[in-house]
Design brief:
Layout: H1 2-29, H2 37-64, E1 72-74, H3 76-87, E2 95-101, E3 108-110, H4 112-130, E4 135-145, H5 147-153, E5 159-167, H6 195-205
Parallel strand pairs: 2-4
Antiparallel strand pairs: 1-3, 4-5
Helix pairs in contact: 1-2, 3-4, 4-6
């Protein structure tokens, strides 16, 4: 089923993206300065919606394609630094981002590009959750103990690198905790419900785990 979904998504992406590119090109070719302000607003809406559709197609492709991580010793802190430098211009006004990264963390066996995609998704998700009111996103790293590994394999395999994204958004009711990683579940008006599902697939492919801790208002 996944193979069929992947094949279908690739075909759909091709069929949808080409006309989308043509629509966007045609809209951008129209000179907004020759039109009244109201018409200019409609042109901007058209471009915005084309970009949103293109983003939806990209998420379908990301979720359906087979994952083949290129695992190598990776510094989580370096990946986070690069991610937030890339994100800089996209941080909304009114939102403060704080990186609290522990020094001397061991390298982890992971695919740096896939980790970056997870971090981008989580940060953008936090920005959307906090909304126009703004807030604060604190991203921290630390060396933690994996209790399951401790009891299963002894202390040698018990240490793990933990990355935590904590935002000051409205929180998520406990009844929805189990569904946030389910494909197509979303609480957003324009969400696809694939962002966190993609994060979970990528984290698992990199031999990690991802968890949600939240409550309404926290």
């Amino acid at each position: 089923r996944l193979a069929a979904l992947g094949e279908m998504s690739a075909g759909l992406a091709h069929e949808i993206r080409n006309p989308l590119a043509a629509i966007k090109g045609a809209v951008q070719y129209i000179d907004p300065s020759r039109h009244p302000a109201e018409d200019r607003e409609f042109l901007e809406i058209m471009i915005e919606e084309v970009n949103r559709l293109n983003g939806v197609v990209t998420q379908f492709l990301d979720y359906s394609r087979p994952l083949k991580p290129a695992l190598a010793p990776t510094s989580v802190n370096e990946v986070l630094d690069r991610t937030f430098k890339l994100l800089g211009p996209q941080v909304p006004a009114g939102i403060a981002v704080e990186l609290s990264l522990a020094e001397w963390l061991p390298r982890v066996n992971a695919d740096a590009e896939q980790l970056k995609q997870v971090f981008l998704n989580l940060a953008l998700n936090a920005f959307q959750a906090m909304g126009p009111a703004g807030g604060r996103l604190v991203v921290s790293t630390r060396l933690a103990r994996d209790e399951l590994a401790f009891w299963r394999e002894g202390s040698r395999r018990a240490e793990v690198v933990e990355i935590r994204f904590a935002d000051s958004g409205p929180g998520i009711p406990e009844s929805e905790h189990e569904r946030v990683f389910v494909p197509f579940f979303t609480t957003k008006e324009k969400g696809t419900g694939l962002g966190l599902a993609i994060c979970q697939r990528l984290v698992k492919a990199n031999q990690g785990t991802i968890q949600l801790r939240s409550a309404p208002g926290a």
